[in-house]
Amino acid sequence: MSIRQVSVMFCAVLAVGFMAFAAEEKAKPFKATCPISGKAALEDKTASYKGAKVYFCCENCPGAFTKDTAKYAVKANQQLVSTGQFTQTKCPLSGGPLNADKKVDVGGVSVTFCCEKCQGKAADTKGDAQAELVFSDAAFAKGFEIKK
What we know:
Layout: H1 3-27, E1 42-49, E2 52-56, H2 61-67, H3 69-82, E3 86-88, E4 99-106, E5 109-113, H4 116-124, H5 127-135, H6 137-143, E6 144-146
Antiparallel strand pairs: 1-2, 3-6, 4-5
């Protein structure tokens, strides 16, 4: 094979790979819930938070969020995980290593725990109290890190 043929083949392989990657990116529609209103969030309405972005439904919500981040921290932390900006690295209750068999869905986010005790505590807690248990600033600091 000549260098030109190899170059053409290499470019073709790159183009196919890029198209597959682009198709995969399009297959994942943006989905987030505004931590202020609970409505669907928009990609262009954001505020910086913990080195990432929190998404909002309108231009008014980012201002309300930045005025009182503590009030909305639980829902903002949950959104950081649901949008893939943060990943779970440890149990949010104990800070211990994760056990893949100990999971609970918390507001649409699959959260892993270290043991049956922590998993049970999360499973027995419902609604806003469950989100508070797992996504409060203290629990978030124990169990989640910004995605690298």
